[in-house]
Amino acid sequence: MQLGDINRQDGRPPSRQIADHLRSAIDRGDLLPGDRLPSEAELTRHYSVARMTARQAIQELRSEGRVVAEHGRGVFVRMPAPVRRLASDRFARKHREAGQAAFLAEAEKAGVHPAVDQIEIDRSAPPADVRERLRLAEDDQVAVRSRRYLADDRPIEVATSFLPLPLAEGTAIMEADTGPGGIYARLEDAGHVLDHFVEEVTARMPTADERRRLELADGVPVLVVVRTAYDTAGVPVEVCDTVKAAPAYVLEYDIPAR
Amino acid sequence: MQLGDINRQDGRPPSRQIADHLRSAIDRGDLLPGDRLPSEAELTRHYSVARMTARQAIQELRSEGRVVAEHGRGVFVRMPAPVRRLASDRFARKHREAGQAAFLAEAEKAGVHPAVDQIEIDRSAPPADVRERLRLAEDDQVAVRSRRYLADDRPIEVATSFLPLPLAEGTAIMEADTGPGGIYARLEDAGHVLDHFVEEVTARMPTADERRRLELADGVPVLVVVRTAYDTAGVPVEVCDTVKAAPAYVLEYDIPAR
DNA sequence: GAGTAGAGGACGTCTAGACGAGTTGCAACG
DNA sequence: CGTTGCAACTCGTCTAGACGTCCTCTACTC
Prior knowledge:
The structure is a homodimer of 258-residue chains. Chain A contains nine helices and ten strands. By secondary structure, chain A is of the alpha+beta class. In chain A, strands 4-5-6-9-8-7 form a six-stranded antiparallel sheet. Chain A has a two-stranded antiparallel ribbon with strand order 1-2. In chain A, helix 1 (14-28) packs across helix 3 and helix 2 packs across helix 3. The relative contact order of chain A is 0.12. Chain A binds chain B through residues 23, 52, 63-65, 88-89, 91-94, 194-205, 207, 218-223, 246-247, 249-258, and chain B through 52, 63-65, 88-89, 91-94, 194-205, 207-208, 218-223, 229, 246-247, 249-258. Chain A binds a DNA duplex (30 and 30 nucleotides) through helix 3.
């Protein structure tokens, strides 16, 4: 592998030059996903710098999410994550009537092994933003369903649904298994025919807790999608707050020009 | 400000404990946005650690995007960014007919000072993914319009539009000023009435170049939105590749339940 | 009073070394 | 032949110090 040398006259500090060398080796394809980078000791020798300087170069690539360090083994070029593409018609009624929860059906079709765990169901007071979206009064309670989605045993999303308690109480929504078609099918069973959803999409770095639950490496952001479901009467019936590992997703939306 | 002490018996390394102290001081509100953190020297004295240890704690918060270091001044709790909310009807014809480019009109209304700079217009062969989206042949050329958007003099987005060259050549699309209603109005002038758009949304860490153009601090991800515009004949007429500073945006989409 | 030079404080980067802990492969042992 | 234990290599963290650049404030000069 071609690494070049440091130019001490260059305005850029040595650690950045080393990072640039490694980055372009990756971009050129000299280092492929899964390949090990030169060890810190090798970089130290090759460039004649202190170990901390070599480490800082690697740190730069880590924070860009391009490489992953594994204690005792080495630093590796990040493997591209298998991507889930979320189409804009993923909540179409036809999928719901097919009789399987959205995630399981879709993943199975895409050839990955889906799973859901860490299912927790609760009743509590909603966070302020959820209360506002559901247009609830000060002391209204909500049903809270949280769960984690995995694809091929790798966690890719944590989701929390909030529903006005009167809508959920006494239905399978409060059970671990919500039955065929999931929450939305149960809402329609109860007469709340769904009309449309509004999704609000943002991205940020994960909190420490999210990094743990999603098993995220350094330098991996999350996509946050907050979806509000409205019935045909225009009443918001569910808010679903999802945090997704960003590299694992492409969200697709269809927008009419009207 | 209450900082506590390091517990050397604790399994967690000192640098992480210091980071936790600072993080909870921010969460508690002891440190408000814009406040200066204790300097490295102060942390070094308070915790009796080496300066590199204090630095590493700060580095952790930087990579989470919670604080911003300013050379010669100090480390500050990040100010919440002014947020642009992109509604799902932002490409509705009514806005176009109002006769102002989408971004300028909307920003002005939101009370921020908008600007566009770094406008570059070119003709070239398209990248592979763009060629595919526009359904072009191997050696077709495209018009390329790239520009940078600023709000209150802070860069928040860089965008590059690709159009089949025959559609753009000879129109104001190849001029710096595309005229009232922007690119989309010019396409409709030319008989390509717009029918719908498809947006693909992902998030990732910025490249070094993007970090510079968007003046992003460490630990700030970008939202990437690739929009394809289709005319009423179902022909893709434009691909717009946008890279947005994530903290500055909320994308909103309306999805019919169908 | 305005302008300027300098000191000091702040972060940026590097050096050289130490110990710890996870991983792996090989060699010796049973 | 299988197992075990150790050595070597890897990254993780910390220490203690150096020098550089940038920013701010103060005190001095004109």
